[in-house]
Amino acid sequence: MEPRRNLRTVIDPKVRKVGFFAPPDRSQSGLADPISAASAVQASSSSPSGNTLSPVMIPPPRHHSDSLVHPQPSSRPVLHSAIPSSYTAASEFSPTAASSYTSGSRFPVDVEDGPFSPSRLAKGTSVKVLASSVPNVSLVTKPSNMAASDRSGRMKMNEMVAPGVEVQNELHGNTKLSKDKLSKAERRALQESQRAAKAAARVEASKGSAGTFGTAPAKAAKAASRKSDNASVAASEKKVGDRPVEKERKKDVPQPRMQYDDTSRVEKAKRRAVVKQTEARNRVELFRHLPQYEHGSQLPDLVAKFFQLEPMHPAVYKVGLHYLSGDISGGNARCIAMLQAFQEVIKDYSTPPEKTLSRDLTAKISSYVSFFTECRPLSVSMGNAIRFLKSRIAKLPLTMSESEAKTILQSDIDHFINEKIVVADKVIVSHAVTKIRDGDVLLTYVTSSAVEMILQHAYELGKQFRVVVVDSRPKLEGQFLLRRLVAKGISCTYIHINAVSYIMHEVTRVFLGASAVLSNGTIYSRVGTACVAMVAHAFQVPVLVCCEAYKFHERVQLDSICSNELGDPDAIASVPCREELSFPDGGTKSENLQFLNLIYDVMPSDYVSMIITDYGMVPPTSVPVIVREYRREHLWI
Amino acid sequence: MPDVHSLVNEFILKLKKRKVEGSQATARLAAVLLRSVISQQRIGYTNQAGALIDAVKAVGEQLVAANPVEIAVGNIVRRVLHIIRDEDLSLTTAAMAGLNLSAVSDDDDDDTSPDDHPVLSAAAVAAAARSTLRPPSLQSLLEDMPDSAAVPHTSSSGGDSEGKSKSADKNSRSRKLKHDVIEAVNELIQDIDTCHEQIAEQAVEHIHHNEVILTLGSSRTVLQFLCAAREKKRSFRVFVAEGAPRYQGHLLAKELVARGLQTTLITDSAIFAMISRVNMVIVGAHAVMANGGVIAPVGLNMVALAAQRHAVPFVVLAGSHKLCPLYPHNPEVLLNELRSPSELLDFGEFSDCMDFGSGLGSPLLHVVNPAFDYVPPKLVSLFITDTGGHNPSYMYRLIADYYSADDLVLQRKAAPST
Fold first, then answer.
1. Shared domain check, A238 and A89
2. Is the CB of A377 inside 8 Å of chain B's CB atoms?
């Protein structure tokens, strides 16, 4: 985080000016006064009539996006010689959204990497800034296209692209002069190039994501040529570079999840399905978009089919049934089981004739994954692991022999399990133990493998502490944790989640596990975690979330309704040992009664004091940074 | 007397063994018991009110000590004491209106409450009336209340102002007092019985179409409130959190479904997930303290916090017998009760992994099962009592109408005497 601090000191404090005042003389407003320059450009581009007096001049908010100033991976040499190319929005943009696209190449243009070098993308809310690196060769054709850049974009460039500043300074005046004189054709060309810049910006995001490069280029090219029938220089050149871009862009946007209220898609999925799930009868209206099946009914049938299923690998089948029955649960356990099943698959795999290993194996894995999804919706950790595996398969050189490829993939999987789960947990434990002091009362909610390891390790270190295990219906998983901790000799207190505000007075720290950490900092975890964190927050007890970094995901979520998993409703209906409470006929007789068994909930980031991950202890605001900066490493290792 | 004594002991035993629980049941039983105490109390010619107060206080003290968590019992004792004082005062004023100054002299040697209306003149009576925190502006509010003592004013004034002989007057007054008090206590009992209906009448003002309402556990008041809205043809959905470890929510869900309400039963842990789609939280209470804080079934503090987070109104329904004139101190601990751990864990379930041999001192495993939660007043949006809706900040004033300031502390008088 050193560069950020440096950056702060460099930027002189900006005074917020509100009210009517004349902007400083344009000739003086060079780089020294970017506010007025930016606003002047804004005004000139938005109002062709020439009214350059903006009544309210508020500088765009300082860009706090950590991604802009995050330290770059040191392995990558940064060359500052690239020419920054920037594009101002054309006049059809609304004045407030008069977005200027700044692009400064921060990476050397890498020949092997294709024409587009990886770039960074940052979007402010009020002022849209696309700081991206664009191919200098293909796009920077006309100097007249260059325009003044946004302030924050330039801020960054002051730091990063020192030599480029002069170039831009020159261009700055240049554009302002030519701005109003742009012909229609030129303007069209400008837009085209902006579009290309935008697309280029997205390359980086999808760089690592699974996918084969260069397949189906025809479609992308067609689309590009359709758009650019104006036959401007920029457009024709774009054709060359646009192919991977378009494709990558499609890949980058996270696939919308299956919505189960979409009947046609559900029908389609059902035809393919191996597991014949039956829909639960009494469904909660609010959760129509999630699959809700009868539990337990299909298991014997599937077990019977074990030897008949020709296309399904037995290891995969076994793991799938374990998911279905709930024998394997917990993000790490599920992920490891799946990866080990895939290892078996790869071991027994032989490429069919007239097929390539990478394509065929990817397809096979995909079909297994859909089988797993039928058994139980994938967790984020599994999704990330699958992405990793697919990208590894795609990256295999075509010339490699089959046996070689298989051993490489198997060792890759081993490596992933070891690095991302086993070692990551050790690192988390070593971090978290430093936060436990003698005399602490630690609270934890149901079970988390990471938290359990932390508690046991701290106990082995001889720390004196007490654990409060909070449990909740219907699974009462906390009892398993309680049993293991008590057997170890750790002093425990056991409560139900309702009593959490009673016990919170004596608690000094809350350790929670997570199923996933989403990029807006929310924690997606076992239902009830948010309740516990909320009460801890209200009692000013620090909440520490322990989560391996491979469970981070770029998805965002605001509530627990949009995406969730529904468990067995019958588990809610019956309380063991309390027969007088049970519903006649399991409660299914009445139309009016429904049981809702949510599996996950979403905890807002402001309840979280700290996320302990294998990259260290970070605030929840740093999650998107980690997702961005380390994803490449995740996938390439 | 022995008859009453055995009744009292029986009730105390029930309270101690937790045979009667729930604020309404205990409140009603306490009121019935106190009525029989009053009716069997022999009172002399002088200082009848003081004798009654003494008797009620002595019994009330035992009742409160038997189960201090049943706050409603203490409330009822205070209410009865207030009724006695009130009736006495109104009789005295009536007598005063009839000019004789001599009638009041007997109040001076009132040793139980030395500051109990030293009545010397009509002006002094008026001052005393003011001191009981009943400004005229709230008189109208009280006249709605069936238990209030406003009734005997007119009836008593005619007979007493005739200027009969002193002893005859006293005799009639003493009978009058006892009679009036018993009447008023009867009204109090009736009040406790009908508070659900009175609260439920207001349901339509708060629930409208297509609302989603969340509640936790079970409360008769909540059930009747929701059903009243349902009967007025409002259609809405109810999320019921089951309220572990007692799972009263299951019972409530069953009742609601039987009355045709759209009901969804959820676990307590799903409250935070669901509250973003909820329009209103309606819950019952165990007791309402003078600062507007609520002693509520366990888990409700969590619900209130979640409701506050999502700006969902948190409405508490409470009959007037649940209003307690005390200010809570450390209520999570002091006004709480720990129930049996067997509701959470089976006894012996963990015996295999616990090493009892090495046990020196404290055991490894504790199971905490509190019965109540304290919801601070800032988390409560509205109280709905049988007198209407009120803000938490108004509760102290509302409560002052039901209790006289002398009775707030029941124990203090007893401490030196025992």
1. yes
2. no
Q: Does A493 touch chain B (CB under 8 A)?
A: yes
Contact B353 A487 (CB under 8 A): yes
Chain B contact present for A464, CB below 8 A: no
Other beta carbons within 10 Å of B358? 8
Q: H-helix or E-strand containing A594?
A: strand A593-596
Phi, psi angles (nearest 5°) of residue A612: -95, 115
pLDDT tens-digit series, residues A259-284: 777 777 777 776 766 666 666 666 77
Give the residue from B149, B179, B194 where a domain finishes: B194
Number of domains in chain A: 3
Strand-strand pairing, B237-241 and B212-216: parallel
For residues A552 and A605, the answer to whether their CB atoms sit within 8 Å is no
Across the interface, of A492, A583, A596, the residue whose CB is closest to B270 is A596
What does the radius of gyration of chain B's CA atoms come to, in whole angstroms?
A: 24
- What are the two backbone dihedrals, phi and then psi, of residue B372, each rounded to the nearest 5 degrees? -130, 160
At CA A18, angle to CA A15 and CA A22, rounded to 5?
A: 95
- Do β-strands B287-288 and A616-618 pair in parallel, antiparallel, or remain unpaired? unpaired
Domain contains A576: no
- Chain B residues in contact with A494 (beta carbon < 8 A): 344-345, 365-368
B158 and B255 housed in the same domain:
no
Structural domain boundaries enclosing B123: 2-194
Of B239, B251, B306, the CB nearest to A531: B306
Does residue B68 sit in helix, strand or coil?
Answer: coil
Instruction: Return all residues near A406 (Cβ < 8 A) that are at least 6 apart.
Output: A346, A347, A349
The answer to the question of residue B362 being in a domain is no
Answer yes or no: do B187 and B212 share one domain.
Answer: no
Give the residue among A106, A116, A74 at the shortest CA–CA distance from A245.
Answer: A116
Kindly report, residue by residue over B17-35, the tens digit of the pLDDT.
888 888 888 999 999 999 9
Question: CB distance A528–B267 less than 8 Å?
Answer: yes
pLDDT digits (tens, 9 = 90+) for B87-116: 888 888 888 776 554 444 444 444 444 444
Residues A157 and A116 in one domain: yes
Residues A411 and A450 in one domain: no
A532, A470 contact by CB (below 8 A) = yes
| Antiparallel, parallel or unpaired: β A600-603 and A593-596 | unpaired
Q: Does the interface ipTM go beyond 0.90?
A: no
- Pick from A476, A454, A479: nearest CA to A465: A454
Domain containing A438 equals 434-564+599-636
Output DSSP code: residue A19. S
What are the backbone angles phi and psi of residue A177, rounded to the nearest 5°?
-70, -45
| Neighbour count for residue A268 (Cβ, 10 Å) | 11
Q: Could you give the number of structural domains in chain B?
A: 2
In a domain, B172, yes or no: yes
A575 touches chain B (CB under 8 A): yes
CA distance B38 to chain A (A): 40
Domain boundary among A395, A424, A453: A424
Q: Does residue A268 lie in a domain region?
A: no
Q: Is B273 within 8 Å of A601 when comparing Cβ atoms?
A: yes
pLDDT on residue B391: 94
The residue out of B141, B161, B194 marking a domain boundary is B194
A495 contacts in B (CB within 8 Å)?
A: 344, 367-369
End-to-end CA distance of chain B: 21
Judgement on whether residues B19 and B93 belong to the same structural domain of the protein: yes
Please name every residue paired with A545 in a beta bridge, in sequence order, or none if there are none.
Answer: A512, A611
Examine the fold and report which residue of A219, A251, A283 is the final residue of a domain before the chain moves on: A251
What tens digit of pLDDT does each residue of B120-149 get? 455 555 555 555 544 555 555 556 555 444
CA B209 to chain A, closest CA, distance in angstroms equals 16
